[in-house]
Amino acid sequence: xxxxxxxxxxxFAAPPSPAFAPLAASILPALIILGFFxxxxxxxxxxxxxxxxxxMTRIRGYYRDLSPHGAAYIIPWAGPAESDVVxxxxxxxxxxxxxxxxxxxxTIAMTIAAINSIVIGASVTLLAVQLFPFGVAxxxxxxxxxxxxxxxxxxxxxxYRTRPPLPPIPEQQ
Length: 173
What we know:
Mean pLDDT: 86
Distance between the termini: 54 Å
Number of domains: 1
Low-confidence stretches: none
Shape: elongated
Largest sheet: none
Number of helices: 6
């Protein structure tokens, strides 16, 4: 909502209006910061979802094993992988069906980061066009956008790979 309303405001103030440059100079950095905070928070939320789904898989397995008939009532989410908590969690989240390097490209956080990369690239292009020819400014904007998307992807991948493990399951008496 913030992005679309800001783009409409920038459209209304488009050049030759003298209000465009000050409006863009105040709106675009705010949008970039908002996009950054949102995408970082979505990485945290994604990690929490994985932790919660893993815990739910443990709970389901516990209840399934309480009775010899439990398996008929509590159907495994992940089929044969259900005995392995991590494999069951990745299967239920759809993560297990993608090659390892693709996993981080299909998260909500990466979607917001990609949009933020476009805003950053456009902002750099708007600034650079004041100093360089349009082709150079456009290339610079594209490179900065690609750099931002790549760095965010690496950040997210690092966070997912170094997430703290769940505590071990206590031995049953």
